[in-house]
Each structure stands twice: as structure tokens, then as C-alpha cells.
Amino acid sequence: MNFPFLIDPVAFSFGALEVRWYGIILGTAALVGLLLAVQEGKRFGIKPDFFMDLLLLGVPSAIIGARIYYVAFTWDEYKNNLGAIFKIWEGGIAIYGALIGAFICGILYFRYKGYNFWRIADICAPSLIAGQMIGRWGNFMNQEAYGGPVEESFLRDTLHLPGFIVNQMNVNGVFHHPTFLYESLWNLVGLILLLVIRRQKFLRAGELLAGYFIWYSIGRFFIEALRTDSLAYQGPAWLESLINALWSPMTVLFEQGYLDPAYGNIRISQLLALFLVIIGIVFIVVRRVNGWANVRYSDPIVSTKEAGQDGGSANASADKTAKTEQP
């Protein structure tokens, strides 16, 4: 059955070539992230070309990582149709897989350029959350990554959402939680917090990235349980009980989205989100307690390779800082 007022996922066509909103939105997200990183990089004397090359390498790495992650956990859907693995425009990518791919690329690229990983990753943290904030609207266009069923009145009268969002949440005659919107708004607040925190004197190298993971993962933990398409696996009962207990305050307002028991009882993104929150907090506390967080976010950033080429007393103190940072 077709329903009126749905947004066509195809933005426009050139003959047989279709340009989808999904790709346009992801491209926009990447561009916004680039601009944020370039602007902040100027404060540390890092050339825009550095971030442009990072984008050219990082985006394909993120897409590949996101697709591999998703396909790995849904292999039964692809094992008899390998060609479908490459149809990413139809959706089916996982944000944690994208982060894994991007971070592997970043580690290699930063080392190649002679930069400390934590310093550049801190600069890129707001870009990451801004990209996720925008990218979720690609899921909206594709009518995917939504939550469990809700009444139309909840969307219109309780949440006061505009008609184009409410209509798009009508999937085969059933209205659903706009989890894409919940996560996008959560990321917007996170972006503002990161932009404010990075100007504070107390911030140490690596802590803005840790803050990004903590903030994003808290939101993802609670929002993920509303979805009906979560990647899952069959885990121990005690872990299922722990996750449900942590999520239980949300039951005052929401019900969890349906998860087929035959598919699994642990939502992978929830488990990974919980793990990242713990790791992020431990990372900050341990480094502070042991005196390892001796480099501030605002300290100069110097490439060991560029420092060796430039020389001179003008870069002496910055060069010393860079050497201290190198793992």
C-alpha cells in the first residue's frame, strides 16, 4: 500500500543514474565536519590540506568499516547474495563500524604526518559528532533506523513534530518513534558542549575525544533500545538483566522496541556504548591520577617531521611539547 506525502529517497536522476538523498546528506555531513576541523586547525597552524587529505582517506575508510561491521552481524542476509553487500545506498551501515574504519585510517595517517594521535583526534571530535548529527537525516529519508510503534497523536500532539516528519514515520500504515531525530538532537547538544569545553583551560589532550565517546554513547545506549532493527546476539542472562536495569528509568516515558528473541537478546550497540562510556571515564581518570595528562588541549601542536625541517629557536618549546606527547 502506498501512502501520500512520503519523501522520495531519490533526489533526482540523470537517465538511469539516481542521486539519492542519503548520499547527499552524508556528503553534507562530511563537508561540515571538514569545515569545523579546518577552522580549529588554523588555531594550531595546521594547513587545511591536511584535513582535506584526511577526509579523502577517512570517508572511504569509514564507509568500508561501517559496511563490514553491518554485514558481519547480518551475514545470513548476504551470504547468498554477495552483490548486495555493495549496495550501501540502500542503507545498512553501522556507525560504530564507521568509527573503527575512520580511526584505523586516522592512526596511520597521523603517524605518517608525524602528529600525535590524541591532539588531532581532539580537533576532529566535534566534526565526528556534527557529521553524525547530520547523517541521521539520511536514515530519515530512507525510512530506516526508526523505533517501535507509537500513536500518531504522540508525534503530532506530544512531540509537536512538523507534518513532514510525522508522515515519514508512517511505515506501511504504522507510525514509529523518530529515533533518528532523538539521536540527531542529542548530538546537537553534544556538539555545543564540545565546542564550549575545548576552550576551557582544564582540558587535557585526548579528553575531548573521550568526552565525545562518553556523550554519544550515553545517548546511543538509551535510544538504541527504542529501535526495532538493532544488531543483536545471544548473550548471558545476567548481562541482559544488567542492560535492562540500566535502561529501566526510560520506561516511565517509553517502551523498548521489539527485539526478536530468536535473533538475540543483547543489542550490540547498547553493549558497545556501555563499554565506551566506561573506557572513556577510566581513560580520563587514570591519566589524571597518574600525571600522564600533562599536555593541554591548547598547547601547540607540531609535527615531528615538520619540526625537524623547520628548526630554529622559535619552534623549540613547541617541539619539546610534541616530543613529550609522542607515545
TrEMBL record:
Q: Does the keyword Cell membrane apply?
A: yes
So what EC number does this one have?
2.5.1.145
**Pathway(s) this gene product operates in, as recorded in its UniProt entry:** Protein modification; lipoprotein biosynthesis (diacylglyceryl transfer)
Cross-referenced Pfam families, in alphabetical order?
Answer: LGT (PF01790)
Where found? Answer: Cell membrane
Molecular function (Gene Ontology), one example: phosphatidylglycerol-prolipoprotein diacylglyceryl transferase activity
- Keyword Transmembrane helix among record annotations: yes
Record family assignment: Belongs to the Lgt family.
NCBIfam families listed in its UniProt record: lgt
Which protein is depicted?
Phosphatidylglycerol--prolipoprotein diacylglyceryl transferase
